[in-house]
Every structure is written in structure tokens, then in C-alpha cells.
Design a protein that fits this description.
237 residues, alpha/beta, Rossmann fold, seven-stranded mixed β-sheet, 8 helices, 34% helix, globular
Length: 237
């Protein structure tokens, strides 16, 4: 850590962000100061901003297809949306957040970094369907249990679009517990994917699912299946 207690930039940051790593550095600096002052990041988190938050979010970019439109619901301090927008300049990002103090921070960061592929929308997921729906991907990080997350995400996704929920080690258990309810919301083919192990430790755990036109019963879907990244290449459609 540096003298201010902020985690020193890992060598892997250059590989993840390439020629946009400078933007990632400025975002980390914003989180370490404004993010803490505004109560968006806990003061103890400054010692792991890169590894636990920024890189942990950015590596999910390997699951995105070029040109896709991604909604980050409950964006908070901009995780995972802002690191993804920095890492994947070829995709479009919308940060959806209901709380004004977080919106102000997000708008400031997007403006200061000049992220032309990213915009901020105030509202809850269910309130922005008309403005932001038909997305290719809906993502989130530590927002809600899987059942609620799918209920909020499905109406925002196009048919065939993907839910990418950043989760922890309990992800397989969430699928077993909530899989039937998630399928009834129209999100099927649930699987656990781990990404970024070569850049961050531990690797990022993601629950991935696909939206279908008509919700099916749990008996008709593969609601309990889990796979690792090796079983299916990133960016499937």
C-alpha cells in the first residue's frame, strides 16, 4: 500500500486496461477520496480497491461481445459498470442507480474520465424499462439474492440477452435455491462462470443466464446446472 493506505496498482492492471489504464487509475483515486467521503466505499476498502473492486469488476469484460449494450443496475459507486466501460471501449454502458448522492458521484466520474461510452440514469430497475430496456446484457454486483436479481433484470433484457451477476463463493447454492423461481421470471440456462483468475486472486465469480420469450417451469429448464469457464467460451450468444 502507499502511505495513504491505498492499494498499490497491481501489475495486471496494465494487461486488463491496456492503453486506458490511466483512466482506471483516476477512477481508483476518486473512489479512495470522494467515494469514501460520500460513504460509497468503506474506509477499510481503500487497501484493496484495485484487486477487490476495480479489477474484480473489469475482468467480466471477457464475457461481453463487441458492440453490446450493458446495463449495470444498482450501480452504486460504479461497480462493475465503470471499470467495464474503461476496459471495453467497444461496448455501451448504462449505469442505473436510484439514489441521488450516488448519481451525483457517477455523473461526476463519467464526466471527469470522458467516458463517452457510458451514461447514468436515475431510477430503480423496474422504473427504467421504457428508457433502458431491450439490453444485450444486464449486470450487477452484490445487489440482491438471485431470485430478486433475475426479476429485476429480465424485463430489461432483449430475448436472448444475458444476465451477468457478480457473486461470491455461494453462487452454486443460489442457483440451487432460486433456480426454479428464476426460470419462472424468464431467465434460464443458469451457470457459474469464473473469470480473470490470471489477473486477480480470487477469480471473479459470475452467475450467467439467458432470457427467453416465455417463462418455463423448473421441470423444463436446466436450472441447477453449473459450469466453469472452460466448458463454454466467453462471449457466447
Amino acid at each position: 500500500m502507499d502511505p495513504a493506505g491505498v492499494e498499490i496498482e497491481p501489475v495486471s492492471a496494465q494487461s486488463v486496461f491496456a492503453d486506458r489504464v490511466g483512466l482506471a487509475r483516476r477512477y481508483v483515486a476518486s473512489l479512495a477520496v470522494d467515494g469514501v467521503v460520500r460513504g460509497l466505499i468503506g474506509p477499510r476498502e481503500t487497501g484493496r480497491l484495485w484487486s477487490r473492486h476495480v479489477l474484480n469488476s473489469a475482468v467480466v469484460g471477457t464475457l461481453l461481445t463487441s458492440g453490446c449494450r450493458v446495463l449495470d443496475i444498482g450501480s452504486g459507486a460504479g461497480l462493475p459498470g465503470i471499470p467495464l466501460a474503461i476496459a471495453r471501449a467497444d461496448c455501451e454502458f448504462v449505469l442505473v442507480e436510484p439514489l441521488e448522492r450516488r448519481i451525483v458521484f457517477l455523473q461526476q466520474v463519467v464526466s471527469d474520465l470522458g467516458l463517452t461510452n457510458c451514461r447514468v440514469v436515475r431510477g430503480r430497475a423496474e422504473q427504467v424499462i421504457g428508457e433502458c430496456g431491450d439490453a444485450d446484457v444486464v449486470t450487477s454486483r452484490a445487489v440482491a439474492p438471485l431470485e430478486k436479481l433475475a426479476a429485476w433484470s429480465a424485463p430489461l433484457l432483449r430475448i436472448g440477452g444475458e444476465l451477468l451477476g457478480l457473486k461470491g463463493s455461494s453462487a452454486p447454492d443460489e442457483i440451487l435455491r432460486d433456480g426454479v423461481a428464476v426460470a419462472n421470471s424468464g431467465v434460464v440456462d443458469l451457470e457459474v462462470v469464473t473469470v480473470g483468475g490470471e489477473f486477480v486472486d480470487p477469480a471473479t465469480v459470475v452467475i450467467r443466464g439467458r432470457r427467453i420469450a416465455v417463462a418455463k417451469s423448473g421441470a423444463d429448464t436446466n436450472v441447477g446446472r453449473t459450469r466453469g469457464r472452460a466448458d463454454r467460451p466467453p462471449g457466447r450468444r
